[in-house]
Amino acid sequence: MKGTNFLLTLTILALANSIASAYDPSPLQDFCVAIDDPNKALFVNGKFCKNPKLANADDFFTSGLNIPGNTNNAVGSNVTTVNVDKIPGLNTLGISLVRIDYAPYGQNPPHTHPRGTEILVVAEGTLYVGFVSSNQDGNRLFTKVLNKGDVFVFPIGLIHFQANIGHIPAVAFAGLSSQNAGVITIANTVFGSEPPINPEVLARAFKLDINIVEYLQKQF
């Protein structure tokens, strides 16, 4: 009997390991439509690889993060991204970096990274940051006021934001757990899609008058 239980346990563990190993690779773009003709294929869920023998140090290097981004815009912030498009050597390594500049009282508005967790460190200034959990967890808001040297994590896929609550510019750097984490800015996506989402759908979803929805769509 003990021998039977031992064999059953081994079988279950082997099956569990097989299932755990059989997963799809993480997507590196918004969608990857299948195509039968390889001559018409342009992307392979990310980038093609260079011959390793032809690689050099410049493939793993970029510069310019010392330069402040232009925050003269509607939201008062600028994101400078260092991903696989800037550093080809990042391909398949599952990591990228951004510099975020904030004007006084500027913000990085609510957005989400569908393919990456973000860890942010404040280099200068004071930020009010937060994220909202999923519907399953009751849409709870997690917030914190961060000062220079403070660190905060935004879990993958969750809506989050940062706002400069100081009267001087602020700067933060963030690492993301994907070579191309993607970004979906909520307001731009909902009210600025092309073509626009039917205003009646948005009016019912947000419990707003349809005229307000149409006004908001014109802003984007």
From TrEMBL:
Residues 1-22 form the signal peptide. The keyword Glycoprotein applies. Keywords: Apoplast, Disulfide bond, Glycoprotein, Manganese, Metal-binding, Secreted, Signal. Oxalate binds at N108, H113, E118. PROSITE patterns: GERMIN. One of its GO terms (molecular function) is manganese ion binding. Residues 63-214 form the Cupin type-1 domain. Gene3D superfamilies: Jelly Rolls. Belongs to the germin family. May play a role in plant defense. Probably has no oxalate oxidase activity even if the active site is conserved. This is Germin-like protein. The lineage of its organism: Eukaryota, Viridiplantae, Streptophyta, Embryophyta, Tracheophyta.
